[in-house]
Amino acid sequence: MTWQNLLELDQTLSSQLRIAEKPGIIRNLAVFFAHSGDSWFWLAGLLVFWWRGSEYWRQRAIVLIEAIIILAALVFVIKLLVRRKRPAGEWGAIYRNTDPHSFPSGHAARAILIVVIMLFQGPAWLAVILLLWAPLVCLARVAMGVHYLSDVAAGILLGLMVGLGGLLILPV
Fold first, then answer.
1. 8 Å CB contact between 142 and 17
2. Is 35 tagged catalytic?
3. What is the tens place of the pLDDT at every residue in 3-60?
4. Is 147 assigned a catalytic role?
5. How many angstroms separate the CA atoms of 103 and 118, rounded?
6. Phi/psi at 101 (nearest 5 deg)?
7. Are 109 and 128 in contact (CB under 8 A)?
8. Model pTM?
9. Which one is catalytic: 147, 149, 150, 163?
10. Domain coordinates of the chain in residue numbers?
11. Which of 79, 84, 86, 107 is catalytic?
């Protein structure tokens, strides 16, 4: 199988999962999950935990903020090197306008990063919620047509690597 065949298969499978143009409850849920991984949302929420939280939550917020910033820089560099265009579509204009490149998925990487860190540093109840949430973010990015499956797969791997690496170097 050639590289071109793999890209075509990726595009075909991704388009089969796409529901951006199909109204209904599943689409509405996909929109929610696709946006729930936004970096501004997470950074704003973590800043509130840092500002108003107990020492326990302040420490976790700092670790996550540092990890998210490092991850964002890595995703940015990879996107500039690869320069893969996002799938065509109307939904997600904000993503297409501010970041026209799709590989790797920053949302998938961020969701997995947050899960990995909170699995080891957070309370068990939150880890379970995040374990359910992260795959839905990843799938929603494909379903809403702003990423291909391979973008999300690469984001998942990157999020795992940075999350595990972050656990080794960031303060607990």
1. yes
2. no
3. 888 888 888 888 888 988 889 999 999 999 999 988 888 989 899 988 888 888 888 8
4. yes
5. 25
6. -100, 145
7. no
8. 0.91
9. 147
10. 22-169
11. 107
